[in-house]
Design a protein that fits this description.
By secondary structure, the chain is mainly alpha-helical. The chain is built from four helices and no strands. It has a domain of 68 residues. Keywords: Membrane, Transmembrane, Transmembrane helix.
Length: 113
């Protein structure tokens, strides 16, 4: 039985992060969070495709990433960022109600209701 590769991989990841941080190549935490949120939104849309769930969640995750970055770097007020997010969420929820947008998990061979 071979030993687990978890510890060596953990050392590699932590060492890489430490190196990037100590050489100032790693972006600050806010920028990293914004990139991860936006990337997760794009990845969700790419993996699950367009359906009622991802039509709302993916753009909101991208917006959350943009909102975190704008709040931190452009000093926008939190009320502005949150109110725009509420408007975007409402619009996306209304669009997702359309019968043209498929339900999550309903493929082409699934029976119609």
């Amino acid at each position: 039985m071979r030993p687990s590769a978890t510890f060596p991989l953990l050392l590699i990841v932590l060492g890489t992060l430490w190196f990037l941080h100590s050489t100032a190549l790693l972006p600050d935490t806010t920028t990293l969070l914004a990139i991860l949120l936006a990337g997760a939104g794009v990845a969700l849309l790419a993996i699950d495709g367009v359906n009622k769930s991802t039509l709302v969640a993916s753009p909101l995750m991208v917006y959350a990433g943009a909102a975190v970055w704008l709040y931190r770097h452009w000093a926008l007020q939190l009320s502005h960022v949150l109110s725009l997010g509420m408007v975007l969420a409402g619009l996306l929820m209304l669009i997702a109600r359309s019968d043209r947008i498929p339900d999550k998990g309903r493929g082409a061979d699934a029976p119609e209701r």
